[in-house]
Amino acid sequence: MITRSPSRLESEPWQQALAAAISDPRELLQLLGLEESSLPLPVDHDPDFPLRVPRYYAGLMRHGDPADPLLAQVLPTRRERDPVTGFVTDPVDDLAAVQSPGMLKKYHGRALMITTGACAVHCRYCFRRHYPYAGQSATRSWEAALDGLRRTPEVGELILSGGDPLALSDRRLAALVSEAAAIPHLQRLRIHTRLPVVLPSRITPQLVDLIGASRLRSVVVIHVNHPHEVTRTLGEALWPLAAAGVQLLNQAVLLKSVNDDADTLVKLSESLFDRGVLPYYLHLLDPVAGAAHFSVSTERARAIERALWERLPGFLVPRVVREMPGAAGKSPLSQL
Fold first, then answer.
1. How many CB atoms lie within 10 A of CB 29?
2. Distance between CA atoms of 28 and 55, rounded to whole angstroms?
3. Which domain holds residue 201?
4. Of the residues 20, 55, 81, the one at which a domain ends
5. Which pTM does this prediction carry?
6. What is the pLDDT of residues 228-286, one digit of tens each?
7. In this structure, what DSSP letter does residue 102 have?
8. What's the domain count of the chain?
9. Can you tell me the distance from the alpha carbon of 270 to that of 192, in angstroms, rounded to the nearest whole number?
10. Is residue 190 included in any domain, yes or no?
């Protein structure tokens, strides 16, 4: 357990836990009591996108289960090296949407800032696993990106993405949110993050204050794929955000052998709602190179969607969508 003295910065514990994340597949398998020979696929090491998983999240995995759905999301395997037609390095044309370093604009009224390339966890299906963060993010300075926003009055919503924006310190986030709030035509701030799910201690009192106190209407979209990720600890961490008036939503990705069945997704929606989070999107997998083995067919996705409508009230059914390059918005499954 990580301890701290009252004189230390409030942000230090989560940063220490982040620094202590597991990066060696052998260590993770040993913690779970697994032999590599028992796994469905051989383990691999990708130096460009290595294993990274916080110990809290590893602790949610089932000991001795080589098919654990949380383990499947983070363990690198040799199948990621298999070339598959249609699976590419920029599956949603992010680079074509770059307006200035670190700022993307795809949809009317919204702009997305790549705040950092850092993440707490390396999800093997990540659609930005090949993104050139070194030259196309606002990690070092967001002034150019914000200057572009100031000259774009039709943009009313700023989306903070990455990487993971909550990998930034509270101090840096506070400065960014303050500068964004000073842009008169911005009305909403949306933060897309998986960090609270894999490291709930990231939601500090300072973070709650800086988001909740902003004049911008704030939305936090977390990324939960499986009900085993929805813990009591996560709920306790999220509650102060909800109490501060922050809208909490969830987006998930439909992943083969992780959550591609109605029972799992019904439980996911119910568990999220119990903790104050509304299901928002269920994304069909973006065809990113290295993730083809997670792909679920459109036919199976339709069957799952029908089952969700039959078993859940409408407000708990996430919109099943795919991001299509060049489209004016996310494309509903019904239009595919």
1. 18
2. 9
3. 95-330
4. 81
5. 0.94
6. 999 999 999 999 999 999 999 999 999 999 999 999 999 999 999 999 999 999 999 99
7. T
8. 2
9. 21
10. yes
